[in-house]
From TrEMBL:
Segments forming domain Gfo/Idh/MocA-like oxidoreductase N-terminal: 4-63
Native species: Crocosphaera watsonii WH 0401
Superkingdom of the source species: Bacteria
Transmembrane domains' residue ranges: none
Gene Ontology molecular-function annotations: nucleotide binding; oxidoreductase activity
Domain GFO/IDH/MocA-like oxidoreductase: 72-197
Entry keyword set: Oxidoreductase
Record-given protein name: Uncharacterized protein
């Protein structure tokens, strides 16, 4: 890497190589962007953080779903106090057909396929709580997942995962649910003392409240109608590949990563957030993948 005179390295290897490669890249004078899962252990995460401090280089981790407009809007509305004090945050994801997975290691990695995708839920939850305590973990196999041909020989031990957390400081709870046996829209439900927001990460937020909406509030739901119409029209007027890439959360995060390098602004996904995801990930996986 030193011979190539690189400025930035993006690490897309299986997670067991992330720690050593990130440290090598920073030793070579590069800033680093690392695909999730960041590392398998808190010890490895701390090695990367220590190397950052030693070399003066910087790193971030791909938490791409945070860069969806719906996720940004949801957090803004919650933090504005729209639904009062947060009582719970719940993450749901269900995708039975896993044939889009390109390599068998996604199923072979520590914690299995659910472990590989688990950071997506964790980084959403820590946007609302910084002190989550793991209270309950249950992983099981139902066996209805559609496995890609490249992983047919892999023993898939888990295709369902449910985890419950508490937040002592906020006096609130959180949970995550993954299923590879049924389909469910990727979604976040944030419940507060004054209402509940349901966010479909594909692009729509619905508010539930015990108070009947006023006429003015009804008009604020017009964007939801527009979203539904756009979804229907998109089937007849598909975007070209370039548009799809530029609209993807991966593209948004990578673009912002380079801009923040140029401006020396803090990365959106800080080393502290990346470390917190690893802390929770390691504890959860160590419970179900004994």
């Amino acid at each position: 890497m030193t011979a190539e005179n690189l400025d930035v390295v993006i690490i897309l290897t299986p997670p067991e190589f992330h720690c050593v490669m990130a440290c090598q890249a920073m030793d070579a004078g590069c800033d680093v962007l690392i695909e999730k899962p960041f590392t398998y252990s808190l010890a490895e995460a701390d090695q990367v953080i220590a190397k950052q401090q030693e070399t003066g280089r910087r790193f971030s981790v791909i938490h791409n779903e945070l860069f969806k407009p719906t996720v940004t809007e949801l957090k803004t509305r919650v933090m504005s106090g729209e639904i009062g004090k947060i009582c719970s945050v719940r993450f749901f994801s269900g995708r039975r057909n896993q044939t889009f997975i390109p390599e068998p290691w996604y199923f072979q990695t520590y914690g299995g396929r659910v472990g590989e995708t688990l950071p997506h839920a964790l980084y959403q939850l820590i946007e609302y709580f910084d002190d989550l305590v793991v209270e309950y973990v249950r992983a099981r196999k139902l066996g209805h997942c559609i496995i890609p041909d490249v992983a047919k020989s892999v023993d898939v031990k888990y295709d369902e995962l449910f985890v419950e957390f508490s937040s002592p400081t906020s006096n609130a709870i959180a949970s995550l649910s993954y299923s590879f046996n049924s389909n469910q829209d990727l979604s976040l439900v944030v419940a507060g003392t004054e209402g509940t927001l349901l966010a479909y990460l594909s692009g729509k937020i619905v508010k539930w409240s015990a108070t009947p909406p006023s006429l003015k509030q009804l008009f604020t739901t017009l964007p939801e109608w527009q979203f539904a119409i756009k979804q229907k029209l998109a089937k007849f007027f598909p975007k070209n590949q370039g548009q799809k890439i530029r609209n993807s959360p991966h593209y948004r995060q990578i673009s912002q990563f380079f801009k923040q390098i140029e401006t020396q602004e803090p990365f959106t996904v800080t080393s502290e957030k990346a470390r917190e995801v690893v802390r929770l990930w390691e504890e959860i996986v160590s419970i179900y993948a004994k």
